[in-house]
Amino acid sequence: MVSVGFDDICNTALGLGLGCFVKQENLTQLDHRQQNNKEHDHFLPSLLSLGSSDDTNQSATTIDAGRHHQQASSLSAAASSFSNSSVKKERDLGGGDQDLELERVCSRVSDEDEDGNPRKKLRLTKQQSSILEDIFKEHITLNPKQKQALAEQLNLRPRQVEVWFQNRRARTKLKQTEVEGELLKKCYQALTEENKKLHKEVQELKALKLTTPYSMQLPATVTMCPCCERVVNVSENPSRDAFALEHKSQFFSHPSAAC
DNA sequence: CAAATGGTCGGCATTACCTCA
DNA sequence: GCTGAGGTAATGCCGACCATT
């Protein structure tokens, strides 16, 4: 099971599989967004100029330089079914102008592979999914470098990594929406219950008001403001004594000011 | 300096394929 | 073997943003 810190992965494709990653500063989502475009200028050349120091990098560079040529490897078995898929457009860099142009041409071809068979849907391996999940926990978006590096690590195309992250964000949002919906539902039920209680209380108070003279309506320990009908139970809350007294005095001198 | 243009991105809705009960 | 439901990879479109002209 491969477990690699994403900050490490995204820093350089050279580090893939070599454990020689360099820590990269964390990026916020906005940072990613803003950085994406800026990085484009130097992203492509840096990847293409990856000096292959070993066979691992050699294969990675091969993928990058010619994304339409599938690399033969165990991990790429799943990806191989996409060699000629109907990708709308490969938005990821890494192939140069000629490759981009080629991509534009090839991207709109049929959903069939070289053999004329209908495109098969990729199922990511557990290992691939696990790595993607781990990285998603750290970063829900990728910048081009990160995407490219991850794609190379997983033997997928950058577009596939991008799509996975898009779908993963959508799933996260959907779950979050469901959770919030449940929460709102519970809040609504609680408020409804509270509302019922308050209505019942109001009815009881109104009934009490009708059947009893005002001077006898309240226990000796309870004070009610005639303006707002606010009730203060002095005996239950001695700390309010001062408030009650002050309020009381205001009731009869300046009732409106008290409320 | 402002407007037009082109490129890239993420979000979103939808489609298409696959698996499983 | 067939079928419907659910999961998910992939597609297509859109608006936002940025760089360039």
UniProtKB/TrEMBL annotation:
InterPro entries: HD, HD-ZIP_Homeobox_LZ_Class_II, Homeobox_CS, Homeodomain-like_sf, Leu_zip_homeo. Its main location: nucleus. It is found in: Nucleus. Keywords: DNA-binding, Homeobox, Nucleus, Transcription, Transcription regulation. Residues 72-86 have a biased composition (Low complexity). The keyword Nucleus applies. Residues 115-175 form the Homeobox domain. Residues 65-95 are annotated as: Disordered. Residues 117-176 bind DNA. Pfam families: HALZ (PF02183), Homeodomain (PF00046). It comes from the Eukaryota. The keyword Nucleotidyltransferase does not apply. Belongs to the HD-ZIP homeobox family. Class II subfamily. PANTHER family: HOMEOBOX DOMAIN-CONTAINING PROTEIN, HOMEOBOX-LEUCINE ZIPPER PROTEIN HAT14. This is Homeobox domain-containing protein. It comes from Hibiscus sabdariffa. The lineage of its organism: Eukaryota, Viridiplantae, Streptophyta, Embryophyta, Tracheophyta.
